[in-house]
Every structure is written in structure tokens, then in C-alpha cells.
């Protein structure tokens, strides 16, 4: 049971693809005035309490945590896989510094629960490519992946050493209509729906047969909330849980879209992101998440296509 009244939630990175939707879901679940959205820049359209936080600044996080008596932090700010390769050292600096700041403020302030999104980017060449197990060899090829492996291990460390209740999911590519992702290797799978609805030709930066794990935003939000609401003794993995949604390649999503828009056209011009994608798994084994806290995915590819197209048609009409 959640005690709605006593929880005070801080979301860091609330303007992002996951953050913007998760913040609304948390506002539905908790008292609205107890949900504090934050990001580097003010979101003028946001309806609720919003604070500007640069999470590389630990004292700024501390100030906001103290100001609102925060009890839970969702730390969603990070530079993603493709963008991260432009400036590897800067990406490492930002991804690690922000996370260590959140962990330290949480420890010092007695935060009761922390959420940390990890990623399928933790897997590299030496992990099994299909049905990738929870406990795999982790040799990521991107700086984003390296920072997520380190971040998972820091989560585990803070749990073991300080008893901080940090919970984490290894997200696949997330597909949602509410906002655009920025700087990821799986971003094509959102962009393609926008082009289809606008009846434009789509140029895909991955090869047609590049299968990657993906997940509809509703499943990703539900997974986050279910993980965070599970009793602490059910959480057996304190690095980060594998979770699986659906796996598909660009040509499969094109086929799914063409059931609705038969004339939809795509050209393939793979770039550096193809190499990143080739190092990632095609599908994920999430049996531990299923066993420990009852995870179950709902949306398959055609479900995703149907919701994406209907919602984006409203947006562009
Ligand atoms: C990315 O493509 O970098 C992200 C991810 C899979 O973590 N969407």
C-alpha cells in the first residue's frame, strides 16, 4: 500500500522522453503538490511544481530535497548512447557526477527510495545476443553503456553499504507519442511513426534487419511504478533488472505501419549508430523481474503501431 500523503517525490530530468510521462503518472498516483518536477530548463507548459536543477550541482539537489522534504528521487537525467559518443569524457562526467550526487544526497538526507534507469546498453559483444540473461558478461561499447554499468554497481554499493533502497531497470528503446527521445540509438522507432503520420518518406539510420529490444511507454511507466511499489524484500537484484517488452527490426515496424499506411516508404542509410546497435542484444530474458515482482509486458508491435498512429494523428491534425 502506498501512503500517498507522506511521500514527496522529486523527478530529476522531468522534461525528457520518460520523465515527462512518468511525472504525470506520479502526479496521478500521489498528491500533486507532493510531486516536484525538475530539469536543467524550465518547462513553461508544465502544470505543477517545477524547480530548475542542474544535477551536476550537489548542493542544488540538496537544497530542493530539504525545501520539499523529499522522500523519493527518480533520477532520469543522462546523455544517451548516440549523443554520448560525440563527447565521451563529457558524457562520463555528466552521467556519473549526476548519479553520484543523487546517491550522496539520498544517503545524507535519509531518502527512502531511489529510482535509476539503466539500459540494454550495458551489454556488449560478449553477452548472449538472444534472450540475454540477467547475469551476463557486461562489456559495453559506448560510453553511455559504460556509465550505466558503473551506475548499476554504485546502486548496488549504496544498497550494501548504507542500506539505501535503490531500484533500477535496464530499459530497452522506449516508444511513446508524448515526446521525442534525444540522442539514442533506438530513436528511429519513434521518429518513424511521426514520418508515417505526416505521410513523409522515412530515412532509417539502422539496417532493415537490425532487431533490438523495445518497449511501449505505458509498459515502461507501469514497470517503473510496479518496481518502486514492490515490497523491499521482493527486490533481489540490486544492480538493475532486465525487462523485456517486444523485439523488432526496422523492416518489421515498416510492415506493421504499412498495414495502416500501405504507401509508407522507407530508405535505409545506416550510420555510426548501426555499429552501436549491433553490439546490443536482440532480445532480453526478464525471468528474474517476472519471478521477483511480477513483471509482465502488455504491448506488442501492432498494439504500439495502432496507439502511436492514432495519437499522432490527433497531434498533427
Ligand atoms: C538509447 O538508444 O541510447 C536508449 C537506450 C536503449 O538506453 N534509448
TrEMBL record:
One GO biological process term is:
L-threonine catabolic process
Please name the Gene3D superfamilies in this protein's record: NAD(P)-binding Rossmann-like Domain
Query: What family name appears in the similarity comment?
Result: Belongs to the NAD(P)-dependent epimerase/dehydratase family.
Q: What is this protein called?
A: NAD-dependent epimerase/dehydratase family protein
A GO molecular function assigned to this protein is:
L-threonine 3-dehydrogenase activity
List the SUPFAM superfamilies hit by this protein, alphabetically. NAD(P)-binding Rossmann-fold domains (SSF51735)
Identify the Pfam families for this entry. Answer: Epimerase (PF01370)
InterPro entries from the UniProt entry: Epimerase_deHydtase, NAD(P)-bd_dom_sf, NAD(P)_epim/dehydratase
Taxonomy of the source species: Bacteria, Pseudomonadati, Bacteroidota, Flavobacteriia, Flavobacteriales
Chain ranges of the NAD-dependent epimerase/dehydratase domain: 9-243
